[in-house]
Recover the amino acids of this structure.
C-alpha cells in the first residue's frame, strides 16, 4: 500500500530529526523539497501525535528531536491507526489463523515500546478496559507459514504441488458439515460432466479427492489464485490443468510439497466476486440446520439485525420478509430469531417450532419466578 504524500513527508522529516543535531527550518525545507511553512506545519503534526521536538528561535535556532524522541524509530502512526493495529494484534488472529498468539504478543510489545507516551497510554487503557471472550465454536488451526506459502505461490504465479488430506477426521470432530472439502469442479469453467472434467461427488457423496485418498491424502498440482475466508475457514481457489476446471480446497488440509518451480499464465477468474463464487460452490449445505421463516418486518430492517453467517433475507412486500435462517444448532436459530424482537412464523421446520415452544416455556417460568421474588434481581459478589 502506498503511503500518502503527507505521511511520506512526515516520515522523511522524522528520519532527518533523528540525526543528533539541530536543523534549521530552511535546511529541512531544502532536504524535503517543501517550503519553510510546510516544515512548520509538519513539525506541529509530529508534536500533535506525541513526538517531542524542541525548537529555538534566532540565527542559531532550529529544530531537534528530544533525547527521548531520538530513541524512537521512524515509525509513524496517528492515534486511531495505533489503536487499530493494537486491536488486531491483541486479537492474535486466533479466530482465523492458529498459532499467531505468541507472534502477535511480541509484535504488540515492540509497537508499544516505540510509540510516543501519549499513544502508549492509550494502548495500555485498551488492554485494561477490554475483555476478550472466547468463541464457543471449534476453529480449525491453520499454520501461519502455510498461509504465507499459499499467498506466495499466488503472487509468483507458480504451480502448487501438495498433498490433500482426507476429510474423515473433520467429519467426526463436530465441525460444520457445510465446510466439508468443497473440492468439486465448478460450472462454466471448462470442465465436462462426469469423468471428463468435473470433479463432482461420486455415488457415495464424496468428491474425487476424498474417494481416492481419505486416509493417506491425494497428490495434486494446481494453479493457485486466491485465498478466501468463510466463517473462520480459509479456502484456496485453484485451477486444475489436468481436469481443466476450477477447484476449491480447505487450507488446513493442504500439505505443500517441494516447490515445482513451474510458472503459469494467469487465467481470467471464474467470477468478479470471488467470495460469492466460493460461497456458492463449496460442497455441502451452508448450515447444519436451516429453516424458512416469515418475519413481520421490512427486509432492510431484518438485514441490519442479521449477519450473513446467520441467514439470508428476501423482501416479500414493504412490511414482511422471508428469512432463511441457519446455524450449528436449532437452539442457535431460535435465539437469533428472538433477538430480532419482531413477530415471525416458521414455515417448514417442526424442530425449530418445538425448540421455540420449549424456550418459550422456560423463559415464561423464569419470568414468573423472578416476579414472585421481586421485579429486580440484584447481582452480588457474595453468596448466601
Amino acid at each position: 500500500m502506498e503511503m500518502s504524500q503527507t505521511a511520506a513527508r512526515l516520515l522523511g522529516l522524522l528520519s532527518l530529526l533523528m540525526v543528533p543535531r539541530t536543523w534549521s527550518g530552511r535546511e529541512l525545507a531544502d532536504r524535503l523539497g517543501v517550503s519553510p511553512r510546510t516544515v512548520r506545519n509538519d513539525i506541529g503534526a509530529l508534536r500533535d501525535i506525541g513526538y517531542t521536538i524542541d525548537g529555538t528561535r534566532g540565527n542559531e535556532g532550529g529544530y531537534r528531536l528530544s533525547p527521548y524522541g531520538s530513541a524512537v524509530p521512524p515509525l509513524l502512526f496517528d492515534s486511531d491507526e495505533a489503536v487499530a493495529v493494537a486491536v488486531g494484534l491483541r486479537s492474535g488472529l486466533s479466530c482465523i489463523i492458529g498459532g499467531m498468539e505468541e507472534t502477535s504478543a511480541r509484535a504488540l510489545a515492540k509497537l508499544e515500546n516505540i510509540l510516543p507516551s501519549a499513544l502508549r497510554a492509550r494502548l495500555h487503557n485498551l488492554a485494561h478496559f477490554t475483555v476478550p471472550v472466547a468463541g464457543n465454536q471449534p476453529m480449525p488451526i491453520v499454520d501461519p507459514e502455510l498461509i504465507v506459502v499459499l499467498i506466495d505461490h499466488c503472487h509468483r504465479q507458480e504451480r502448487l504441488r501438495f498433498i490433500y488430506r482426507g476429510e474423515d477426521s473433520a467429519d467426526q470432530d463436530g465441525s460444520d458439515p457445510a465446510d466439508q472439502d468443497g473440492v468439486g469442479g465448478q460450472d462454466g469453467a471448462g470442465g465436462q460432466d462426469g469423468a471428463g472434467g468435473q470433479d463432482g461427488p461420486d455415488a457415495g457423496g464424496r468428491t474425487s479427492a476424498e474417494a481416492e485418498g481419505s486416509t493417506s491424502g491425494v497428490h495434486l498440482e494446481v494453479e493457485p489464485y486466491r485465498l478466501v475466508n468463510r466463517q473462520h475457514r480459509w479456502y484456496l481457489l485453484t485451477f486444475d490443468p489436468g481436469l481443466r476446471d476450477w477447484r476449491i480446497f480447505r487450507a488446513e488440509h493442504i500439505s505443500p510439497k517441494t516447490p515445482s518451480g513451474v510458472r503459469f499464465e494467469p487465467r481470467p477468474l471464474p467470477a468478479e466476486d470471488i467470495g460469492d463464487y466460493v460461497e456458492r460452490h463449496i460442497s455441502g449445505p451452508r448450515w447444519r440446520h436451516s429453516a424458512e421463516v416469515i418475519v413481520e418486518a421490512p427486509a432492510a430492517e431484518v438485514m441490519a439485525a442479521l449477519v450473513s453467517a446467520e441467514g439470508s433475507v428476501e423482501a416479500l412486500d414493504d412490511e414482511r420478509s422471508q428469512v432463511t435462517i441457519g446455524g450449528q444448532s436449532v437452539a442457535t436459530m431460535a435465539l437469533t430469531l428472538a433477538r430480532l424482537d419482531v413477530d415471525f412464523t416458521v414455515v417448514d421446520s417442526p424442530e425449530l417450532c418445538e425448540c421455540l415452544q420449549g424456550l418459550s416455556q422456560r423463559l415464561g417460568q423464569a419470568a414468573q419466578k423472578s416476579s414472585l421474588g421481586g421485579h429486580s434481581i440484584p447481582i452480588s459478589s457474595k453468596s448466601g
The first helix runs from residue 5 to 17.
